[in-house]
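ZP: hey, is the arginine complex queued? I don't see it on the tracker
AM: it wasn't, my bad. submitting now with these inputs:
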Amino acid sequence: MCAPVHFEVAYAINAWMTPGAVVDTALAVQQWETLRATYEGLGHEVELLDPVPGLPDMVFAANGAFVVDGVAVGARFAHPERAAEAPAHAAWLEAHGFGPVTPTVGTHEGEGDLTVVGDLVLAGTGFRTDRRAHAEIQERTGRPVVGLELVDPRFYHLDTALFPLDDTTVAYYPGAFSDGSRRVLERLYPDAVVASEADALVLGLNAVSDGRHVVLPVAATGLAEQLRERGFVPVPVDLSELLKGGGGPKCCTSELRPRPL
Ligand code: ARG
């Protein structure tokens, strides 16, 4: 995670951002601290990346790299405004034993468009991630990559429309995906939790599950109820300031998946 001490809406690179939007940075930091404390309270270990002045979106730590089985794949950001975040992630990862970290040739923004469900990597494309990066990630990780096409600009990263619940299933908002990708999701995850548009529009799918607890935006009340019915424990958090940048809990979180023992 990376504290939002330099967070502001200085440019617009997604449909949620209005340049010049008034941001209460102190409140953003406070909300982010609550997210961090929530993870720690659930028994997770949180590592911190130093925020860099001039990189207001660095709080969205999910985007700097993709780490699975202890292998880190460096991001190549789609927008120049965020490009300098990638070397900061790579330096941290290399200093902590995940190196060497090099970017892909095709653009991809780490866990923004990449997630792991059991053996598979699910990979978004359509807005930020180049299909070429999917092939590169499969080659570098040795895990099968399943490409999913995003079609609604409000859901510009896969993690705004889908998250893994555990090793066997996911929650997602079908309206974010192309027809073919919807059919892929129905085939792979017939028992998925299917979220409503209302919950998707508060970035309710930008959630983090540890297989039991699901940390999700407080406004996603319908989704929280669906999760409860399925035996999960919803843990709501309020990240209203960061929503102005188009992010929620998952965007603030990069998962460091270790090498298998
Ligand atoms: N303003 C950031 C961008 O558009 C938000 C990134 C949110 N991160 C995420 N994993 N969806 O790039």
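AM: back. The chain is about 25% helix and 15% strand.
ZP: great, adding it to the tracker
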